[in-house]
Amino acid sequence: MRRPLKILMSINSNPFAVKVVITVIAFAAVSCFIVMLELTRHFREVMTSLNIPKEIIDSSIAVFSQQLVITTVILTIIGVNGALLVAYFVTKPIRDLAEASKKIAQGDLSARVTTWGHDELAKLGQTFNQMADSIEKFTAEREALVKELMRNEQTRQELLKKVITAQEDERIRISRELHDETGQSLTSLIIGLKLLEDEINDPKQVQAISELRNLASTTLKEVHRLAVELRPTVLDDIGLIPAIERFNQTYARNYNIDIDFHVQQKNKERLSGEVETALYRIVQEGLTNIVKYAKAKNVSVLLDIRDTCVKLIVEDDGVGFDVEKVGYAEDRHLGIAGMKERTLLLNGSFTIESSPGQGTTIYVCIPLQRSGINEIANQAPPCG
Predict the structure, then answer these.
(1) DSSP per-residue letters across 10-74
(2) Residue 163 confidence (pLDDT) above 50
């Protein structure tokens, strides 16, 4: 009993099968009705030709019609069952294909169809299975490639982070050597030249020594400037905000631009060393690019330090540029790439907006996690 019910339910869900069954039933009913009429007519003609009384003819026709109706019903039932079976087996491969396609669309790439025989539907099923095999193989290869790319990217980021850390350590070392050793040596040289200048009476020699002392003084100032640019001691001693303020003042004075620096800070705790260094270098690179390329007169730097993230915005009113057309070999692109890499290494987001004649704006957001002092958070809230 379950098998016919299953067939009926399956056919009922298939519009094509329903149409086939209805057509067969209608055809069988009409055919049987026509046959019954013809047989009744011939039977009446034969009985009449034999001069059989009308009452007997009518009675015989009634019995004959009743038997014919029963036979017709039986034949119709047999025909309908046959049509059901035919419709079921004809449409089953199509239903299987539809079900397998649905499973693959939902992500089940192991779905396949069972094929019978060598007809067109069987060939279609075989082609479908081959396509599913190709999709499953391609997906597996793609997933393996994605995993490999992710591992390579993670390795690249780890190596880049080590390179940047080593670079900062080397900057600190060179800055200290310039300040402590080279600076002290130049200071001693300047003092010695001054003493020598005071002891010599020859005007020409005094002038020559004075010029050497002035050159040494200029060199000492340049050494101090380089030491500060390599690694400002104020960044390590006091923190990010004073370091940016001092850097902005120096740049504004040296390059005759107006730099407006705003700070919003809810928590007075210092950021981690990595975050402070990254933000300072981004400001440094941003202002360097502005001086080199932007021809700007006004610059705005906004530092917004929150509990969960720190945001930095650097905006200028310079000539701007087409972000999409900056060549990879250009110094400007290398500077932008460096700022972006520093941001991404801290799980942050970096965006630059610019267009010719409209100035440039840099947006940086780095997630934070507070634990006494801020530390970089692998699971920190995303920037928004």
Answers:
(1) HHHT-HHHHHHHHHHHHHHHHHHHHHHHHHHHHHHHHHHHTT--HHHHHHHHHHHHHHHHHHHHH
(2) yes
CA distance 30 to 73: 12
Q: Which long-range CB contacts under 8 A does 160-167 form with residues at least 24 apart?
A: 160/341, 160/345, 161/345, 164/341, 164/342, 164/345
Tens-place pLDDT, residues 186-236: 888 888 888 888 888 888 888 888 888 889 888 888 887 787 777 777 888
Instruction: Choose among 278, 271, 273, 272: nearest CA to 345.
Output: 278
Gap between the Cα atoms of 200 and 193, Å rounded: 11
Tens-place pLDDT, residues 315-345: 999 999 888 877 544 566 778 888 998 898 8
Please say whether the structural domain 240-384 has been given the CATH code 3.30.565.10. Answer: yes
Q: Would you state the pLDDT for residue 1? A: 46
Which residues, other chains included, contact 314 with Cβ-Cβ below 8 Å and sequence gap of 6+? 282, 283, 286, 287, 290, 299, 300, 301, 302, 361, 362
What is the C-alpha radius of gyration for the chain, rounded to an integer number of angstroms? 46
Residue ranges of domains in the chain:
2-111, 240-384
